[in-house]
Amino acid sequence: MLSDPQLIDSINSQIGNEFKASMQYLAIGAYFEKETLPELAKFFYEQADEERTHALKFMQFILDAGGEVKIPSIPSPTHHFQFAEDAVKLSLESEWIVTNQINDLVGLATKNNNYITMQFLQWFVKEQLEEVSSMEDLLKIIQRAGEGGLLHVEEYLARSPRSEQQA
Ligand code: FEO
Predict the structure, then answer these.
(1) E strand or H helix at 84, and its extent?
(2) Ordered structural domains, the chain, with CATH
(3) Which of the chain's ends, N or C, has fewer CB atoms near its CB within 10 Å?
(4) Helices H, strands E: what count in the chain?
(5) With a 6 A CB cut-off, is 154 part of the ligand 1 pocket?
(6) DSSP 8-state assignment for residue 1
(7) Rounded distance, CA 25 to CA 27, Å?
(8) Is residue 131 lining ligand 1, measured as CB closer than 6 Å?
(9) Which residue owns the Cα nearest ligand 1 atom 1?
(10) 64-83 pLDDT per residue, tens
(11) Ligand 1 atom nearest to CA at 98
């Protein structure tokens, strides 16, 4: 087996973390859709798809390495938020948690001299930089707009390059 059992266990846990993030973003997308904020809903639904893709990448890696995929149970996400800002704050916290989890995986692969896993994880290290940065930007915009200015946030997202790229 290319990857050692300790790493396979940790990557299986990470699959759960990515699905957990995906479900949290789905719940936040549904919250924004219910609040009739379609661009914010779209942003989080797309984010949920990205997290699912991350989980699938980890699954494929385990399979390529000859390990066994074991998807952990996923806790129910948070569905209710008092303010839009609370949902985005939770998302930013979640991205920092995932960043630390990826860092821990890199640390373990390094400690075990597992160069294949170290190289595989580099994609995720870079991805986390982008995801933390984009969620920090969204939080700043929401805070600047305030609860009464959420339609400005909708306009901003509708015009953002991210939205045009994925249209
Ligand atoms: Fe897969 Fe946003 O971390």
Answers:
(1) helix 84-111
(2) 5-166 (1.20.1260.10)
(3) C
(4) 6, 0
(5) no
(6) -
(7) 5
(8) yes
(9) 51
(10) 999 999 999 999 999 999 99
(11) 3
